[in-house]
Structures are given as structure tokens and as C-alpha cells.
Write a structure and sequence with these properties.
The complex is a heterodimer of chains A (392) and B (158). Chain A is mainly alpha-helical and 392 residues long. Chain A has three domains: 168 residues, no CATH class; 105 residues, no CATH class; 76 residues. Chain A has 16 helices and three strands. Chain A has a three-stranded antiparallel β-sheet, with helices on one face. The relative contact order of chain A is 0.08. Chain B starts with a helix and ends with a helix. Chain B folds into two domains: 73 residues, no CATH class; 58 residues. The radius of gyration of chain B is 48 Å and the shape is elongated. Classes of the chains: A mainly alpha (392), B mainly alpha (158). Chains A and B meet through helix 6, helix 8 and helix 11 of A and helix 5 of B.
Chain lengths: 392, 158
């Protein structure tokens, strides 16, 4: 009798475990929920699409059409929010596709992030600042889910980060002092900063894929894409070079792959240096490969497939600096919430300007404060500064 | 030998020897006069062979004539003065509108970045999504079931 009881109990336990697994939510892969969101997201008409773009760029404020569009996509935003909290995100990419690798999630995720940001602004308008800021953190986490795969996905991730940080600045301006929410936000931003997409990781994967495709049979893909658009960024000289490469033998491709591997290894080795040195080294490397392409045949293909890494290093510094400026602004807001006024100097230990590796220059203004960088963005030849308005 | 000729031969024999109506038995004659029968057969075969040889000769003549004609045409084609055809190089790839999938390939997006930075990537992403078309915001299970039952969503809503 006792044995029968034990067997019955065991069967019940197994059944309960299996049933709980069958109804487990959320799934352990964020991409599943993102895809549900993509399938359900209503494509805005041209007018609303333009409005969403202008709202993102700060050209216009909220209006009724945007509110209606966001309301229609409430469930979509919910899926994005849940997905962003899942650690693992596997988009199911087949990296063996090489240069043909399809990345449809980039366009969709970008649009989804704009939708989430519009909702953040609507929440802030209603006075629900905590949910509004949660939406911004959702966006940051979405960038983490997309930005580590390839260089192009890294860049899309940067765009999503920038949108979220600008939205946080706007919300902080409107939000009355709320120490609890600010401390919560400070913690969330510190957490996100540790997992932000890394340029080195994206570059390593990109190099792997390009190396795989530096074969004669793949040149036609490159040629096809380059020739399709007259302004594809690849000039006629490169197209002619590709046509010649198509007739080369395996020895040539072996030499090309060796050259490319060495070039990318040199590029990756400088990323730990401060920004001005990184930019200088990468610019020098880019000039070297261009010179080699005119003198050494094996450098031609490597030159064609190598990314604009110097420009990307500036993109990275720009993203990290804006991120740090936002974190510094939160620190300043926390002091204001504690003391009732803006501090006279920058608080100790605030994140730094990544262009110079030094503290931001902090200046109070009539409408709030400004955080200035101490070094130039060498790609754009400008010194960035970030303005934060503060509610009186 | 056909029946008409046999009948005529019977009549002639009958009249010559005046022995009343007679019948020519061909099979019996073949058996009794094998040499004569062989002579008749060989004459027929010889005539057939002669016709076959003539036909073969005629056909061979045709072969020779055809060969000669081909040789002459070849000589004319090879040696006659003519204009060289111009070397026409077709464009490697015909210009065509990219599909949304092609627009979202790694290479295509990288080229867009090279062309105009993130602005260009954004533009390409937007274009791809527009080409994919509009989608509904929500499809509930109830609406799907209504569709499955043949009821239009609009009708079920009203």
C-alpha cells in the first residue's frame, strides 16, 4: 500500500513539473518575444511615421495621432518590455551565410525602440515617471540584445542607446525631485553600463565572417551588391578590382586572408588605449591598408572588406560619453533631490568623458546645467557638450 | 506464277497435244525439274541485286555532292572578306530594385553605412519596412477563429 502511494506521488510530481514547463513564461530566449512584437506591431502611415521620427529628434512634442498609434500597440510594448528583461537573446543567425547574412531584426528592433520611447514620453506626460524611465531602461536592454552580433548591429545598438539617453534627459527635466526613483535609475544605468554592446566583440565576429567569405566563389556576391547601386559607396575602381580578383587562384586568396587577419589583429590590439591614441592608430592603419592596396595585390581584397574602424571608434566614444553624461546628470539630480539645489561642482566619482578620459566640465546655466567634454571628437572635429534642463 | 498465266498455259498445252482439259501442277513441276526452277529463281535475284547496286551508287553520288557543297561553303565563309563583330561587354549586373530581404543583408547595410553613416542605414531600414507593407496591430484568438469560420473580422466586430 505504501509503495502504491509513493508511485502515485511520484507520478503527480512529474506531471506538475511537466505542466509548469509547458506553461513557462517568459521563454528563455528574448528573440521569441521580440518576434511576437514584430509580427503584431502596426506599421504607422507615412504621416505618423514622420511624426515619430521628429519626436525622437526632439523636433516636435506629443500629439493625438502619436498617442493613438502608441495605444494601438500597447501589447507590442508589453512584449518588448518582458523580452528586454530576459538575459539570453538568440536571433537564430546563420553566420555561415557570410556577407549574405540576413539581419531583418535590425530594422524592426529600431522601430520598436522608437515606439517604446514614444510611450515613455506619454507616461511622463501623465506623471507616471517611474514607468517612463523603465521604458528607457527597456530600450537600453534592447540595444544589448542586438548590438553584439556584427558591426552594423553594434551601430544600430548605439542609435537605440542615444534615443534612450535623450529621452531620460527630457524626463529628468520634467520630473519633480524623487530620490527613490533617481536612486533606482542610477542603479539601473550602472547595471546596463556593464553589459553595453562592445565594439571589440562585434569587430571579432565581423572579422570571422569576412574571413570566411574571402574566397573566389564569394566575390560575385560582393560584386553584385556593389554594382547594384551607383552610389553604393564602392567606386568603379573597386568594382574593376573585384572583377580581376574573381580570376585569381587559391594562393592569392590564402595570402589575402593572411593579410586581413594580421590587419584586424592590429586593429583590435589598440582598443584598450585612450580614445585619441585609438583614433590615431586606427587612422594610421586605415592609411596603411589603402597604400598597400596600391602596391601589394593581397591587400586589395582586405582593403575592400575592411570596415571604417576609425570612424567606428568615434561612434563608440560618442555613445559611451553620452551614456556617462546621462549617468553624471542622474548623480547631479540626486544631489538636487537631497539638498534642494544643484551642486556647485561635479560630484565625486561621476563617470567620465570618454573622448578625454577625464571628468566632464560642469557648468550651471539659467535653465539647468551643461556637461562639456575636454577633448574633440576627432572624426567630426567638434567638442561635444550636453545640456540638461532642470525643473524650477 | 499467277493464276491467269497458269490457266493460259493449260489451254495452250491442251490444244497442242489435244488431250482434253489439263491442269499445270506448279509444285509437282518444281519437284520434277529442280534445275529449271533454280534457273528461274537466280534470274529474279540477279535483277534485284542490280537495282540495289544502282540505288547505292546513286546515294553515294549524293554523299559526294553534299560533301563537295559543304567544303565549298566552308571555303567561302572562311576566306570571304567580312566585318569583325564588335566585342560587346554586358554589364556584370543589371540594375534592379533590391528586395526588402536584400536590403537587410549584412553587406547591404554595411555598404549603406559606408555611403552615408547611420542616417543612410536608418533610411535603408525604413525603406525595407515600407516595402514589407502594413500589418495589423492586434489579432486576437477570437478574431482568428472568426476568420477560420468564414466570418470577416469587420463583421464580427460590428
Amino acid at each position: 500500500m505504501k509503495t502504491l502511494k509513493k508511485v502515485t506521488m511520484s507520478i503527480l510530481i512529474v506531471a506538475v513539473v511537466l505542466a509548469s514547463q509547458a506553461f513557462a513564461y517568459p521563454p528563455d530566449n528574448a528573440a521569441v518575444l521580440y518576434h511576437r512584437a514584430f509580427m503584431l506591431r502596426s506599421e504607422p502611415n507615412d504621416e505618423v511615421d514622420k511624426m515619430l521620427g521628429d519626436l525622437r529628434r526632439g523636433k516636435i512634442g506629443l500629439n493625438e495621432q502619436i498617442r493613438q498609434y502608441v495605444k494601438k500597440n500597447r501589447q507590442v510594448i508589453e512584449y518588448a518590455t518582458v523580452a528586454s528583461k530576459i538575459e539570453n537573446c538568440d536571433w537564430g543567425m546563420d553566420f555561415s551565410e557570410g556577407l549574405d547574412l540576413m539581419m531583418p531584426e535590425l530594422a524592426q528592433l529600431r522601430q520598436l525602440s522608437y515606439l517604446v520611447m514614444a510611450d515613455a514620453r506619454i507616461r511622463a506626460e501623465k506623471g507616471d515617471y517611474r514607468t517612463a524611465l523603465e521604458r528607457c531602461i527597456t530600450n537600453h536592454k534592447m540595444s544589448v540584445h542586438v548590438g553584439n552580433d556584427m558591426l552594423i548591429s553594434y551601430l544600430v545598438g548605439i542609435t537605440i542607446n542615444e534615443t534612450a539617453n535623450k529621452c531620460i534627459a527630457d524626463i529628468l527635466f520634467k520630473m519633480p525631485d524623487n530620490l527613490e526613483t533617481l536612486v533606482w535609475l542610477q542603479g539601473q544605468m550602472a547595471g546596463v553600463s556593464r553589459v553595453l554592446p562592445r565594439l571589440e566583440a562585434a569587430l571579432a565576429k565581423e572579422a570571422e565572417v569576412c574571413l570566411h567569405d574571402m574566397r573566389r566563389e564569394k566575390i560575385s556576391v560582393l560584386l553584385d551588391q556593389s554594382s547594384q547601386e551607383p552610389n553604393s559607396g564602392v567606386d568603379q575602381k573597386v568594382i574593376e578590382q573585384l572583377r580581376r580578383i574573381q580570376r585569381e587562384d587559391e594562393t592569392y586568396f590564402e595570402k589575402s586572408r593572411a593579410y586581413y587577419t594580421s590587419y584586424m589583429a592590429k586593429a583590435r590590439s589598440v582598443f584598450e588605449l585612450p580614445y585619441p591614441q585609438v583614433h590615431e592608430e586606427l587612422t594610421r592603419l586605415a592609411e596603411q591598408i589603402e597604400k598597400d592596396a596600391n602596391e601589394k595585390p593581397e591587400a586589395v581584397l582586405a582593403h575592400i572588406v575592411s570596415p571604417a574602424i576609425a570612424k567606428m571608434s568615434s561612434n563608440r566614444a560618442s555613445r559611451d560619453t553620452l551614456f556617462n553624461a546621462t549617468r553624471a546628470a542622474i548623480d547631479i539630480h540626486i544631489i538636487k533631490a537631497k539638498t534642494g539645489k544643484l551642486p556647485d561642482t561635479l560630484p565625486e566619482g561621476t563617470p567620465k568623458d570618454m573622448f578625454s578620459g577625464k571628468d566632464f566640465i560642469y557648468e550651471k546655466t539659467d535653465s539647468g546645467f551643461v556637461l562639456k567634454c575636454q577633448e574633440k571628437d576627432l572624426d567630426k572635429n567638434i567638442v561635444h557638450q550636453y545640456e540638461f534642463k532642470v525643473a524650477k | 506464277m499467277d493464276e491467269k498465266k497458269e490457266k493460259r498455259l493449260d489451254e495452250l498445252l491442251s490444244r497442242a497435244i489435244d488431250s482434253g482439259p489439263v491442269h499445270f501442277d506448279a509444285d509437282k513441276w518444281k519437284r520434277e525439274h529442280p534445275t529449271a526452277w533454280q534457273a528461274v529463281i537466280s534470274r529474279k535475284t540477279q535483277a534485284t541485286s542490280e537495282r540495289t547496286i544502282l540505288r547505292l551508287l546513286w546515294q553515294r553520288k549524293l554523299v559526294w555532292l553534299t560533301t563537295a557543297a559543304v567544303v565549298m561553303v566552308t571555303i567561302v565563309v572562311l576566306y570571304a572578306p567580312r566585318r569583325r563583330p564588335e566585342l560587346v561587354i554586358a554589364p556584370a549586373v543589371a540594375s534592379r530594385e533590391k528586395s526588402p530581404a536584400e536590403m537587410m543583408s549584412m553587406l547591404s547595410l554595411s555598404l549603406a553605412y559606408r555611403r552615408g553613416g547611420m542616417e543612410s542605414v536608418d533610411e535603408q531600414c525604413d525603406k525595407a519596412l515600407k516595402l514589407l507593407g502594413h500589418k495589423p496591430a492586434t489579432i486576437s484568438t477570437k478574431e482568428l477563429l472568426n476568420q477560420d469560420n468564414g466570418t470577416r473580422i469587420e463583421e464580427s466586430k460590428s
